[in-house]
Each structure stands twice: as C-alpha cells, then as structure tokens.
Automatic annotation (TrEMBL):
InterPro entries: NadA (IPR003473), NadA_sf (IPR036094). One of its GO terms (cellular component) is cytosol. It comes from Sulfuriferula nivalis. Its EC number is 2.5.1.72. Its main location: cytoplasm. Its cofactor is [4Fe-4S] cluster. It catalyses: iminosuccinate + dihydroxyacetone phosphate = quinolinate + phosphate + 2 H2O + H(+). GO terms for molecular function: 4 iron, 4 sulfur cluster binding; metal ion binding; quinolinate synthetase A activity. GO terms for biological process: 'de novo' NAD+ biosynthetic process from L-aspartate. Catalyzes the condensation of iminoaspartate with dihydroxyacetone phosphate to form quinolinate. Keywords: 4Fe-4S, Cytoplasm, Iron, Iron-sulfur, Metal-binding, Pyridine nucleotide biosynthesis, Transferase. This is Quinolinate synthase.
C-alpha cells in the first residue's frame, strides 16, 4: 500500500530558455576536425546522451565513444581506458562519471547544463527527509547530485528501477524514493512496493498530454506508442511500451509497426532513425489545454551542449567535474550496487 506524501519543500524549478547551437557547414567541419585532434592528443573519449545534438552524437560514434542512456554512459566511461572522459549531457551524468572514475579527468561542455529533477532535490532537505524515515531503504534516480547519491542506499536508472525496487520489495523492504514523482508512481504501481515519493518532475516529460495523445492515436491507428516513465500516469496508460531511452529504441527496432508515437525528448529521434531506417517517428503532443511547457519535447539543459563549447573545454581545460573524496566514496557504493545488480540480472 502506498503512503501518500506531499514533500512541502520541493523547489519549483524554472527551465532556462532554449538556446540551441546553430553551425554552418564550414564551421562544423572545422570544429569537428579540431576536436578530434585535441581528443587524440589528450587521450579523451566522448560519451553523449541520446538527448544531445546530432553533431555530438555523431562525433561520439565517430571517435570510438558512445551514445547512450545514463546507465550505459556510466558503464562505458568506467570501462574505457581514456584518461579524460568528455560527458555531453547534464551535470549529474558528469558527476556519475567522476564518482566512478575519481582518478580520471571529467570535462563537460557546459556546467550550467542541469536537470529539473536534480535541482528539485537539494541534498540538505533530502537528507533531513531520510532522517525522518530511518526504517526505509533510500532509492534515488540517477538524476540527482553526488551528495544525494551519497545519502542513498541504491541509485537506479529508468531501465533498472522496476527490477531493483521489485527485488527490495520481495525482501520486505519499504522504500523512500526521490526525486521523480511520476517515475516513482509508475514503479510503485508496477511493483506494489511501499514507497514514499519525493515530488520532483522532469520539465520535458511532464509536458506530454494524455487527451491530445489519445486523439493522435486515433489519427494514427497503426502506430505504436512508446513512452518514457518520467511521463504522467495518464500518458503512460496509453503506451504500448513503457521504457528507458534504450528500451524505446529497441522497441522501434523490434516491433513490426511502421509508425511510432514517441513520448520522450526528441533528441532520441536521431538514433531511432539510424536504428530503424524507414520507420516513421512522431513526437507525442505537448500542446493543448493547460499546456505549460516552454521546452516542448526537448530539454533546454541538454541543448546547452555543443561543438563550440566542447572545443573550448578541450582548449582550456575548464569545466572539470570535481567531487570531494568523502562524497565520492559514499556515492560510489550506491551506484556500484546498481551496476552489480544490472550485471547479475
Ligand atoms: S530531459 Fe528531463 S530528466 Fe532529462 S535532463 Fe532534461 S530535465 Fe532532466
């Protein structure tokens, strides 16, 4: 039975304006060549999230890096021999890379690239919340700061959350969950676990609209609906597949449908087109009555990553991610617990 809990101090997060890098063909080619040279000189590897620009995703692929979700980005950076990890994504991904690789240099194109889930879960308030519930196992989503991870027993991603919480539930554990209320609600309904939910949300996924999605389904009756579980419950209820970004791409490859309606950041379409050529991907609706999104279907923090800023950090060494040793030593335990669990299951 879920205990309803309204976290009184969950901060309201205002998304920044969307500013995407625009490059001409000559500048793009010059920057890519320059970055490749510097990466080779500095023994650097680029890991990029699916929500970053096509330019960054293509560069990661072309230079032996990876384009993936946050779980695989963490795994890849950890296993790779490079001494510098370039993380194109948002701050918690850079933090995770540093926590797993304290001996490596971790650089990010823009340290202002954050996440509404991370920002909605300040470490001090979260720690006080945990102190009020010592009988609960603390499970936090990867989209959190290093300090919040250090306070947690487990870190999970959208691809591992259901299995890990189901595992803990089977052991008779009660859960304290943060920060995404929608993903937490989905995990609670799927597993039946007793969960207290922090009340954060993703500004991108929260904006998808069920009524308009139902109308879109009627207009595209043969399309499969693929939904990320950071979306509201009424949107998830319309899904044929609910899953992480990697699971969404896999569904597009393996399902027989030609058309897909996709409720996640539209940056993923670049990989979906490459993984399932000839198929048609339609952005799930974010407009309609009550729509509040300013960044409909694209994350304004992910958009802060670009080739110019990546070249700048390689030229100057700025934007290095640093995590203090005490925090790193605690946070690595909760992340490693997830990686070990994922490897075993
Ligand atoms: S898409 Fe949502 S969850 Fe992902 S980084 Fe942006 S705000 Fe955070």
């Amino acid at each position: 039975m879920q205990t309803l809990f309204q976290m009184p101090h969950t901060p309201k997060v205002i998304a920044p304006p969307m500013v995407e890098e625009v490059l001409g063909a000559d500048e793009r080619a010059t920057l890519i060549a320059h970055i490749k040279t510097m990466m080779a000189q500095q023994n650097a590897v680029l890991v990029a999230h699916y929500y970053t620009s096509a330019d960054l995703q293509d560069l990661a692929d072309a230079t032996g890096g990876c384009v993936s979700d946050s779980l695989e980005m963490a795994r890849f950076g950890h296993a790779h021999a490079a001494s510098t990890i370039l993380v194109a994504g948002v701050k918690f991904m850079g933090d995770t890379a540093k926590i797993l690789n304290p001996e490596k240099r971790v650089l990010m194109p823009d340290l202002n690239a954050n996440c509404s889930l991370d920002l909605a879960c300040p470490a001090d308030e979260f720690s006080a919340f945990c102190d009020q519930h010592p009988d609960r196992v603390v499970v936090v989503y990867a989209n959190t700061s290093a300090a919040v991870k250090a306070r947690a027993d487990w870190v999970v991603t959208s691809g591992t959350a259901v299995k890990i919480v189901a595992h803990l539930h089977a052991l008779g554990q009660k859960i304290l969950w943060a920060p995404d209320k929608y993903l937490g609600d989905y995990v609670q309904r799927t597993t039946g676990a007793d969960m207290l939910l922090w009340q954060g949300s993703c500004v991108v996924h929260e904006a998808f609209k069920a009524k308009e999605l139902a109308a879109m389904k009627l207009a595209h009756p043969d399309a499969a609906v693929l939904v990320h579980p950071e979306s509201p419950a009424d949107v998830i209820a319309l899904a044929d597949v609910v899953g992480s970004t990697t699971q969404i791409i896999r569904a597009a490859q393996t399902m027989p449908n030609r058309e897909f309606i996709v409720a996640t950041d539209n940056g993923i379409f670049h990989k979906m087109h490459a993984a399932a050529p000839g198929k048609v991907f339609i952005e799930a609706p974010t407009a309609g009555v009550g729509a509040t999104c300013k960044s409909c279907a694209h994350c304004p923090w992910m958009a802060m990553n670009g080739l110019r800023s990546l070249a700048h950090v390689l030229e100057t060494g700025v934007n290095e991610i640093l995590v203090d040793s005490a925090t790193q030593q605690k946070a690595v335990l909760s992340i490693q617990r997830m990686l070990d669990f994922a490897a075993q299951h």
